[in-house]
Amino acid sequence: MIRIYEGDPKIYIDENGASLVFKGGLPVMDGGLENAVIISLFTKKGWFGNSFFTNQSEKIGSDFEETVKGTINRFYFTRVEKSIDNALQWMIDKEIVSKIEKLVSNPSINQTEIIIKLFPPSGNEIELLLLQNGMNWIFQTTNPAYRRI
Domains in the chain: how many in total? Predict the structure, then answer.
């Protein structure tokens, strides 16, 4: 049983950036992989915190957000998928997940939909849905932490 007050503060991406949700005065916590994915995708290269790491493989940073904001043409989907692969490869290297599947689509003229499926060794697949409407992000999961009891 997962308790909503155990783990790390759950990060939610919304139209204003990142935020936390509070229930009963306490932040909703999450012990899952969603935070790691969000930090890996949305932390820009050159993040100052990387100066504390001597091992290059421990440094984080991604071009994901810039890539997704690019022009939607026949190369767009390949570029976005490659950016996701680059940002999340460390999770496979460290055997946190055995594989990652992603689906990038363009359901309407000003919208990008990205579904990322993580397959941890436990066998419990985690699916994340990222929607970009214009310049705004809306983040949802199929099983958000605040709904877990």
Answer: 1
In a domain, 120, yes or no: yes
CB contact at 8 A, 138 and 131:
yes
From CA 43, how far away is CA 15, in angstroms rounded? Answer: 16
Domain containing residue 131: 8-45+56-147
pLDDT, tens only, 65-110: 899 988 888 899 999 999 999 999 989 998 999 999 999 999 887 7
Rounded CA-CA distance 70/147 in Å is 34
CA 111 from centroid of its chain's CA atoms: 17
What is this structure's pTM? 0.77
Examine residue 105 and state whether it is found in any structural domain, yes or no: yes
